[in-house]
Amino acid sequence: MSWYQHRRHDCGATGCPVQQKPRPAHRYSRRCANAGGGRSLPRGGSAAAGLAATALLALLLALHAAPAATAEQVLWGYGVRGCDDYIAAAKAADAGDAAELGRFEDWLAGFISGLNLALGEDVLRGSGLGTAMTAAREYCTANTGQDFFNAAMEHVRNLASLR
Q: How many CB atoms lie within 10 A of CB 111?
């Protein structure tokens, strides 16, 4: 099935009034993942690009951990929210209001997707976001002074040590 067959209009007939232009090829595979609608990257690629992505990720992690010398760091997203905020959102979800917890899960999905793209591997080792959210809840319960980013990274580090 071609990419344009997913669109609303797909007459495929000769002389069709709607002209469909093929999109240029992109580097992602056209095979849809069966869970969550994500896409997977093709295997292979440039070793230099993988090394550069790994170096960039290491730099970003180092900058996150380094204290600000003169200026206050400006960070965005739910990753910088405290573990106490995450626990409150999880308790609210248990009571039926999952909106805030959904925002944490959305941030985690983007963060994990970014790590997967940068490292060229599944950092959750197939365990899924549900398991990562549960691990973050356990971490945050024990470490209320930490932020959600550290809870997510702790789970990723634990899975990486299982290689």
A: 20
